[in-house]
Specification:
Blueprint (H helix, E strand, L loop, with lengths): L3 H4 L1 H10 L4 H17 L4 H9 L1 E6 L2 E6 H26 L6 H25 L18 H9 L7 H25 L6 H19 L5 H18 L4 H10 L11 H25 L15 H27 L11 H10 L4 H12 L7 H26 L10
Antiparallel strand pairs: 1-2
Length: 403
């Protein structure tokens, strides 16, 4: 008879995986697969009903009336973008982006890794009406997934290679934020935008005055989020702006408010916000056509952009930056390892799904399901190829401490 400890073995292993560096990526993949399974079963109507259910929040004349799907995409994802804002601020203050010469190589790689996939997508989808709106979908990189795959290779990975990927991913997120602000903004409401700018001005003033009350920042940030939501600019940008306004350091306080908030939000974002977002947005009904719809230009363009465009763009820009002496090759890193990381950058997933929801408007647009299929296909293949390339390119025995 099997002992209780033995029967709990698989659960302990699963718990260990979920709490490891690869955990968030594994959980995202599980939720995406679950959503696709439900959407291709008899439960599909329940899935659609849940996320199309209207949720209303109002105080006096201010009413927010949106389906549950948009509360996830506009509301919960604002928390994720708040965390991104905090991470970017930390990197700019004391991290890998604080030394511009050190950051040149990953910054250039990020630019190439956004431009090439967009170009490939536009070429493949040039004859599809409305597809041009999705040009930025394959330009994104999912930090959690990419770092999670790299972590599977353990101490063989040089520290400099991890730093390169993290810096590239942070720069990629910054680029995605700029793209969302410029290209995915609806008609503007000047009144709501004025309130948002007023709230932002208060936050900046609080920062300059070294105000340390975290609740005050969050309260003004919430007002800014509502105003941005009503203004036509995508509401998640309020989260980024709030993150930038949190003071990195305060007089007579040893711990950094930015770092403290990062630690407090990381678990909630990784294990609640992002998995729910993946579950809400990855559900795609394949239908009678089966996997043959992968041949449609939209999923083909997205998958091609992620799988081919990302590594091409990253590697070309790295080559010219190194050739002209603008930056040097990171210590203990070779071209094979850079190629492996370039493929990992093709894991778009979370950010690609998010941009796809903006580009094609969710479940009501006929292209919405197609973009999700392309994202999942391109991201999964990129992860596998990147892992295989890195496994061959990395030395057999390398201590992380020695690199």
């Amino acid at each position: 008879m099997e002992s209780p400890n033995q029967s709990l073995g698989p659960f302990k292993k699963l718990n260990a995986v979920l709490h490891s560096e690869v955990g968030p990526g594994v959980l995202l993949l599980i939720m995406a697969i679950l959503a696709m399974t439900i959407m291709n079963s008899s439960l599909a109507s329940y899935y659609e009903d849940v996320f199309s259910t209207k949720v209303v929040l109002g105080v006096g004349p201010i009413i927010i009336d949106k389906p549950f799907l948009l509360w996830v995409n506009d509301g919960l994802m604002a928390i994720f973008f708040f965390l991104i804002g905090l991470e970017i601020k930390r990197e700019l203050m004391v991290g890998h982006l604080s030394d511009i010469r050190q950051a040149f190589l990953p910054l250039g790689a990020a630019v190439g890794g956004m431009a090439a996939p967009a170009l490939i997508y536009l070429i493949i989808t040039r004859d599809v009406e409305g597809a041009v709106n999705g040009w930025a979908i394959p330009a994104a990189t999912d930090i959690a997934f990419a770092v999670g795959v790299l972590a599977l290779l353990g101490p063989r990975v040089p520290v400099a290679l991890k730093v390169f990927l993290l810096t590239l991913a942070v720069a990629d997120d910054l680029g995605a934020i700029v793209i969302i602000a410029i290209f995915y903004t609806d008609q503007l409401s000047i009144g709501a935008l004025s309130v948002a700018f007023a709230a932002l001005s208060v936050l900046i003033l609080m920062n300059r005055l070294n105000v340390g009350n975290q609740s005050a920042y969050l309260f003004i940030g919430f007002i800014m989020w509502v105003a941005v939501l009503k203004s036509g600019v995508h509401a998640t940008l309020a989260g980024v702006a709030l993150g930038f306004c949190i003071p990195y350091s305060l007089p007579k306080q040893e711990s950094s408010p930015v770092v403290k908030l990062e630690h407090e939000l990381h678990g909630f974002s990784s294990y609640i916000v992002l998995p729910l977002f993946a579950f809400a947005n990855a559900g795609v009904a394949i239908g009678e056509q089966g996997l043959s719809i992968l041949g449609h230009p939209v999923p083909l363009g997205i998958a091609g952009g992620l799988l081919i465009g990302k590594p091409i763009g990253v590697m070309i820009f790295c080559y010219f930056i190194l050739k002209f002496g603008i930056a040097s090759m990171p210590r203990h890193v070779n071209w094979g390892q850079l190629l492996g990381v370039a493929f990992l950058c093709g894991i778009g997933f979370t950010m690609s799904l998010f941009i796809g929801s903006l580009a094609f408007g969710g479940m009501g647009n006929p292209l919405a399901g197609l973009d999700r299929l392309g994202i999942l296909t391109g991201s999964i293949i990129s992860a596998v190829v990147g892992f295989v390339v890195l496994k061959k390119a990395l030395p057999d025995k390398t201590s992380a401490d020695s690199t």
